[in-house]
Design a protein that fits this description.
Number of strands: 8
Largest sheet: 8 strands, mixed
Distance between the termini: 51 Å
Structural class: alpha/beta
CATH architecture: 3-Layer(aba) Sandwich
Radius of gyration: 17 Å
CATH class: Alpha Beta
Number of helices: 10
CATH superfamily: Vaccinia Virus protein VP39
Order of helices and strands: HHHHEHEHEHEHEHEEEH
Strand content: 15-25%
Helix content: 25-40%
CATH topology: Rossmann fold
Number of domains: 1
């Protein structure tokens, strides 16, 4: 099942409302990505979304909402972006298509998903993207990655305290972690504020996402790195998920 041009119109219009202009060549890349995703999905479990029109809105347009956390001027810079727990490449692949000046690294621990990302990068000729197979808590210890990225994204990875512990070690001072979220987030944000402080960052005000094609209560949560992340983070052995920072009653330092 291939995506038709009409199905791409909500993406074009939605992107424009985000301040992102997509030309015909970029829209053609999105169409090719949709076809490739759904073809691979018949053999490898990449997404539960199999309607091309929903792929366009719930994967592609939703990914582009990450740009709301950046000013128009910041978007013009050659941003070094890391997408942690990228899965089938979201939000990293749509951001690489929409912002060709950015250098996008997709980090995914599952080999079959990394192989899909590599196939997508090759098929779409995305010279500004690369795929890495690995775990965030391990790669964050590598000097070539720790504190090296302007922006780190994470979509549907974990609750905010664990997500920040996985992501902030990769961010340079002044850089930002961007996390699309939805649902009831009050308690998660309170814990995320505490975790951000421990990790050398400041949680920013939630940014509401008001795009009719997405149709639910979505926000962009972001944290700005104000100093280098302390060396003990991220903790190993699944600790960010088992013993999340910032949760009431926890005394992690």
């Amino acid at each position: 099942m291939s995506v038709n041009p009409e199905a791409l119109e909500p993406l074009r219009l939605g992107a424009a409302s985000l301040g992102v202009t997509l030309d015909d060549a970029q829209l053609a890349r999105f169409a090719a990505l949709c076809d490739l995703l759904l073809d691979w999905n018949t053999r490898v479990n990449l997404t539960a979304i199999t309607d091309p029109a929903e792929v366009v809105t719930r994967h592609f347009l939703d990914s582009l909402t990450c740009a709301l956390a950046l000013t128009p001027d910041e978007r013009l810079h050659p941003i070094a972006l890391l997408d942690v727990g990228s899965g089938a490449g979201f939000p990293g692949l749509p951001l690489a298509i929409a912002f060709p000046r950015w250098k996008v690294t997709l980090l995914e621990a599952t080999g079959k998903k990394t192989r899909f990302q590599e196939a997508a990068i090759m098929t779409l000729k995305l010279t500004n993207a690369r795929a890495l197979n690995g775990r965030a808590e391990e790669l964050a210890r590598a000097p070539e990655h720790r504190g090296r990225y302007d922006v780190v994204t994470a979509r549907a990875v974990a609750a905010l305290p664990a997500l920040l512990e996985y992501c902030l070690p990769f961010v340079r001072q002044g850089g930002v972690v961007i996390a699309p979220k939805k649902g009831e987030l009050a308690d998660e944000i309170i814990a995320g504020e505490r975790a951000a402080r421990l990790l050398g960052a400041r949680l920013l005000d939630p940014i509401p996402v008001t795009l009719p094609p997405l149709g639910d209560d979505r926000v962009i949560l972001a944290a700005r790195a104000e100093r280098p992340c302390p060396a003990q983070y991220p903790r190993a052995g699944g600790a960010p998920l088992k013993r999340p920072l910032g949760v009431e009653g926890r005394k992690d330092k």
